[in-house]
Write a structure and sequence with these properties.
Layout: E1 2-7, E2 13-18, E3 21-23, E4 27-29, E5 42-43, H1 45-48, E6 57-61, H2 65-76, E7 80-85, H3 96-108, E8 112-115, E9 118-125, E10 128-135, E11 138-144, E12 146-149, E13 153-155, E14 188-190, H4 201-215, E15 229-231, E16 236-241, H5 244-249, E17 254-260, H6 265-269, E18 276-282, E19 288-295, H7 298-310, H8 315-319, H9 330-338
Parallel strand pairs: 3-14, 5-12, 6-7, 6-12, 7-8
Antiparallel strand pairs: 1-2, 4-13, 9-10, 10-11, 15-16, 16-19, 17-18, 18-19
Length: 346
């Protein structure tokens, strides 16, 4: 039996006795060095969900999924949105083709992008922010009512007293765990954003299930082979498995197939034809390595690929599966056929 001492909000303490404990304290937004959040003008994603009014000008620092999601929302609500990204691409953590497509689509929607821009400082003058950044060797600036810093999140492990039980962090500040979510300390488990796995709510939920099953004496392990990631913009963006370059770097000889939504009857009927589905396979084994999608209901469609990959399936397995017509899911079948140059409706 172990004891956990908890500092209470009112200043007192409480001791909780437990045979096992699960650390699930999540993560916190990362600040840019020298540019702290002030909760009013320079904000994180949390405060960006609670604005009292729509900002006329919004600068978003970071073109990852959080920056695109919130930036595109405020763009549609009428804000003039400028996105500053230090990398040379949008969505740098996803397949390069997705980043290119997202850049083009959201630029057409009115968002302004500056790629390769390194933010160096923010000055506040009468509630207006001046965001200074370096771009192509020159100094520039943008003004805004609000500055959303969306450069990532970091595990929230401060003040947990992990050192008192001998629990060490990895070099990036995460808690190492085994596939059963066990830490190096007997009886202590960790899940979610505090462990070095994809920082996604649905991943944390399954990790919690695995930890609970292990505590209950059942055999259970996490499998990260097919984890879907979704960017909730319009259009949606979804991905599972390896990026094309990542697959090549891992030694695969790849074959790809891509099919646009403009060739899908349901997409044309709802006048939502932007985007495509892309499949990446191993040329020798024909195994499905990754699927990437941008377009209508991408967050729903990706799960067909998730299931296929979880069972070691191939693009041919999807191509030979009957898909109802007219549905958006036909784009998955057509992309699978495209791997062998056999797309039908284009």
């Amino acid at each position: 039996m172990g004891a956990i001492e908890v500092d209470l909000a009112d200043g007192g303490t409480q001791v909780v006795q437990a045979a096992n404990a699960i650390i699930a304290t999540g993560s916190a937004p990362m600040e840019i060095p020298g540019i702290p959040f002030d909760g009013e003008t320079v904000v994180s994603s949390r405060e960006a969900l609670e604005f009292n009014e729509i900002p006329n000008q919004l600068v978003v620092v970071g073109a990852g999924y959080i920056g695109l999601e919130l930036g595109s929302v405020y763009s549609r609500l009428g804000s003039s949105v400028t996105v500053l990204e230090m990398m040379d691409k949008v969505l740098p953590e996803m397949d390069e083709d997705l980043g290119v497509a997202a850049h083009e689509i959201f630029a057409r929607q009115g968002m302004e992008f500056h790629l390769g821009a390194k933010v160096t400082g923010v000055e506040i003058e009468e509630k207006e922010a001046i965001v200074r950044y370096e771009l192509a060797g020159s100094e520039s600036y943008s003004t805004a009512d609000k500055v959303l810093v969306a450069t990532g999140r970091q595990p929230f492990v401060d003040r947990l007293g992990l050192e008192t039980v001998g629990l060490e962090l990895d070099p990036r500040g995460f808690i190492p765990v085994d596939p059963g979510m066990r830490t190096a300390v007997d009886g202590v488990y960790a899940i979610g954003d505090v462990v070095p796995t994809p920082m996604l709510a649905h991943v944390a939920m399954d990790e919690g299930m695995v930890a609970a099953q292990c505590i209950a004496g059942q055999r259970s392990e996490m499998n990260y082979t097919a984890i879907p990631a979704v960017v909730f913009t319009h259009p949606e963006i979804a991905s599972v498995g390896l990026k094309e370059q990542e697959a090549i770097d891992n030694g695969h000889t790849v074959r790809t197939g891509r099919f646009p939504f403009r060739g899908i009857g349901r997409a044309r009927a709802r006048r939502d034809v932007e985007g495509w589905v892309k499949m990446i396979t191993d040329a020798e084994s024909e195994k499905l390595l990754g699927v990437h999608c941008i377009g209508a209901e991408a967050g729903h469609l990706i799960h067909e690929a998730v299931v296929a990959m979880a069972f070691g399936g191939s693009a041919e397995d999807i191509a030979l599966t009957v898909h109802a017509h007219p549905t958006l899911s036909e784009a998955m079948k057509e992309a699978a056929l495209a791997v062998d140059g056999r797309s039908l409706h284009i």
